[in-house]
């Protein structure tokens, strides 16, 4: 006769590192309670389960409105490093959703998250910076970071952070300086960024060049770029293999060449030949920025004389399918062809 046998093995697909998730609408309220449990293992398992759930935007929305954010903010100061790592991971996953980024501003998450800038655990800092970068991509998030005074603190972290985290900081700064470049300028941001432009990592070069493009927009930034001798590095970056780097380098030259000092420093650094090479680029941003930079440089008589023989090259861009390229080429031709 058959008999009932109870196996000592656990059922398949059971993860002991995660808390059991309650059914339906009870899942998030129960996890929210477990996040503040005094027992470490329960908090760890609740965070692991929450990490899986908030990949789904609907679950992320539910977690935010079931009180999880306040619990998570408290866990950022937990004594256990594994709890802090998982907590910052949850915040990063929430920041990937638009509803999460809006909640960061509504529930004041950015400030307690930024308190981990001096966190000793690398994985925790990395998750924190990934979350801040996601929030900074949201215009209101960048405004929030600038208002909280995070830009000077981020600039100071550039020389000391490991490469992967440094690239995240630079990306965050590139969004913040578009909102207001003055805090970065006041924190010696230009020399800090200049030192990163020659880094072997393409991610760091791309993010640093993007931040330099933003910081060169205000008048103070243009003069600072000239004072710090950035043009030789920018001209070298015009030959970079990464189109994001070359577009930002050409854009920075374009911005800074608006002032007379910028024009002549760019010409002295030999900017015209590599810019002419970029006119034929198939990348829209690279080509447009190169044409605009040449237009700004052509306001100097010596540059206009040099560029006159290259008008046939510029005219080939007049029939480009992108209207932005056509307009930039037409403006460049008009300025170069101008006679007193």
UniProtKB/TrEMBL annotation:
- Matching Pfam families: Arm
PROSITE patterns with a match to the protein in the record = ARM_REPEAT
Q: What is the lineage of its organism?
A: Eukaryota, Metazoa, Chordata, Craniata, Vertebrata
SMART domains with a match to the protein in the record: ARM (SM00185)
What protein name does the entry list?
Answer: Radial spoke head 14 homolog isoform X1
UniProt cross-references to SUPFAM superfamilies, sorted A to Z: ARM repeat
Q: Which organism is it from?
A: Salmo salar
Q: Outline the ARM repeats, range by range.
A: 229-271
Gene this protein is translated from: rsph14
Task: Report the InterPro entries cross-referenced here.
Answer: ARM-like, ARM-type_fold, Armadillo, RSP14
